[in-house]
Design brief:
10% helix; mainly beta; 31 strands; single chain
Length: 563
């Protein structure tokens, strides 16, 4: 008998399931994509590619990941499906709770404590006989199966990370499933060591997807095939790839998409409002159904994210894709930042103009000393396993202005601590992250004023296509947070802790709006103000200050860092 393996299943009330091609906007101007799925409809936008990330200056970054490669054969498109309506529509989702995150059952955690085993998710198939269906309160369903694995595709060895496809399977009800890799460990492995792999046997069918206009699957021959192929195991890393037009076997290291592709951001119109006048945005993949990775509570009127939530899979994270090439942050739907592009707010020229006009003091803008505002991730790419999932985190609604010295200082330390403890415990964590307050700097008139990033006023400084809608200067802005917070929830024990970091390297000591419990619970002391002053709160106490954050059961007490 082989080890238990678990698969995420997202149940969509769509029948029949419509095949969807996830279309991407061009590099300069995002276009809304409105797709109807029978009785369920989605208003979506895919990532565009204006360059920037947490570690690079906006003006200096140059990334052409999403440009089509020359010299490839024309993509053989699938036959069009009836019932796809591209008129503007609202989003309807099967979600009942705006605060849902991807979760799994306790079998994941129990398996992850064994040595020399596959510690997490693998593929299921309608052919498997030993299936057990589990559904939790969030509405996500999981399949637990027992079977052997003949093929093993190692993430950092056998898979082309630069142009990685999406891996899907079907359950017995023909629902498509997102697949999370397994983790292979040895007897002497430390908590942060292991090999991530996609493992399946000859009875299981895996669906490879390369969404996006002009995208397709490349096989060893170099020809572009369809954007979707069925894959079956032969042995080791050798697989068969099949469709009506293609019958071929290949080593999987020779298989990839023809180009990188982005994630998708949609409004969930079925969800209730969240936070303070917030609407629920979901980030994920619109391919053979909807596959969510991140929830975002977003205030459209104030162009401000209130919080994001996602799941951190500690039992698998040690085997995650490692790849330093990052995509560009995406605007997403025009409605997210109506009439302007948020990337224009982050340019060094724009920042310098805004900050100096307000303060008259150059100490607030010293790029050579990391004193400038970066795009600070809320749900960071490092919390996700597959390269495609990591890339999907690059939406502006999943970020806010954060001083680079803090972004790469103690805030990075907080993110690493969350991953460390999740891996040590080999458990999933629920994570909610967001901003709090608006940073105030001393202005020329001696008063402290709120700081907002704004696009540079000179239109000749941007190459972006102009929008027909005129925007009032007061509307085209992004608030600089005063604090960042991160809530960790350990569902197996209902334990929680909240980390709060200042976003102001210029003050001596911040206001602490709770009793600091970091050191009492074995969390390190992070008090260098230039790197971010960090303190810890009990969840219940922090919720008195920020009452709208995600609801968690923290009855098990404070989450301690294992020694």
């Amino acid at each position: 008998m082989y080890f238990k393996i678990v698969v995420i299943v997202i149940i969509l009330t769509i029948h029949p399931l419509v095949e969807i091609e996830c279309r991407r906007a061009n590099n300069e101007e995002l276009q809304d994509i409105n797709i109807s799925l029978g009785c369920k409809t989605f208003k979506t936008a895919d990532s565009n590619s204006k360059c920037d990330d947490d570690n690079h200056n906006y003006n200096d970054c140059n990334n052409d990941d999403y440009k089509p490669e020359p010299g490839k054969k024309k993509l053989q498109k699938k036959p069009s499906k009836k019932g796809i309506n591209q008129s503007p529509v609202k989003t309807e989702m099967p979600s009942k709770n705006g605060n849902e995150v991807i979760t799994t059952d306790e079998q994941l955690e129990s398996n992850s404590n064994k040595k020399n085993v596959k510690n997490s998710f693998s593929f299921s198939s309608e052919h498997n006989k030993a299936e057990k269906s589990l559904t939790d309160e969030t509405g996500f369903t999981f399949l637990s199966i027992e079977d052997g694995a003949t093929c093993s595709l190692k993430l950092n060895q056998d898979i082309n990370k630069d142009k990685e496809p999406i891996f899907l399977v079907k359950d017995k009800n023909n629902n498509y499933l997102l697949v999370l890799p397994t983790l292979i460990t040895s007897d002497n492995s430390t908590y942060n060591k292991g090999v991530g792999a996609l493992e399946f046997d000859m009875k299981e069918t895996v669906y490879l997807e390369c969404p996006g206009k002009g995208n397709g699957i490349l096989i060893e021959s170099g020809d572009i095939t369809q954007s979707s192929l069925e894959m079956r195991c032969i042995t080791g890393t050798t697989v068969s790839l099949n469709s009506e037009q293609v019958k071929e076997s290949a080593d999987f290291s020779k298989v990839s998409c023809s180009k990188s592709f982005p994630g998708t951001a949609i409004f969930n119109e079925n969800a209730e409002t969240c936070g303070e006048k917030g609407r629920l945005v979901e980030i994920g993949f619109l391919v053979e159904g909807w596959h969510k990775l991140i929830n975002v509570c977003y205030n459209v009127e104030e162009t401000k994210t209130l919080y994001t939530s996602h799941t951190l899979f500690g039992s698998v994270l040690a085997g995650a894709d490692v790849y330093n090439k990052r995509p560009n942050f995406a605007k997403g739907l025009e409605e997210f930042y109506e009439g302007f592009h948020p990337g224009d707010c982050y340019t060094q020229e724009s920042q310098k103009q805004v900050i100096l006009e307000m303060t008259g003091d150059e100490k607030y803008f010293q790029p050579s000393d990391n004193i400038y505002l970066a795009r600070g991730h809320f749900s960071p790419d490092g919390d996700f396993i597959l390269k495609t999932w990591q890339d999907a985190t690059y939406f502006f609604v999943n970020a806010a202005p954060q001083w680079q010295c803090i972004n790469q200082g103690h805030w990075l330390a907080v993110e690493n601590l969350a991953r460390e403890v999740s891996m040590k415990l080999k458990e999933k964590f629920h994570v909610t992250t967001g901003p709090y307050g608006i940073l105030k700097l001393k202005s020329k008139n001696g008063q402290y004023e709120e700081l907002f990033l704004k696009p540079i006023k000179k239109e000749t400084k941007t190459k972006r296509k102009k929008t027909n809608k005129k925007v009032d200067d007061k509307d085209a802005k992004i608030a600089v947070p005063d604090y960042y917070f991160k809530v960790l929830h350990r569902p197996s024990k209902n334990e929680c802790i909240v980390f709060i970091s200042t976003n102001n390297p210029f003050i001596d000591k911040p206001e602490e709006f709770c009793k600091d419990i970091c050191e009492d619970n074995n969390w390190p002391k992070l008090r260098d103000q230039k790197k971010g002053f960090v303190f810890c709160c009990k969840y219940e106490e922090f919720k008195e200050t920020v009452p709208y954050i995600t609801e968690y059961d923290c009855s098990g007490g404070v989450l301690k860092r294992p020694k």
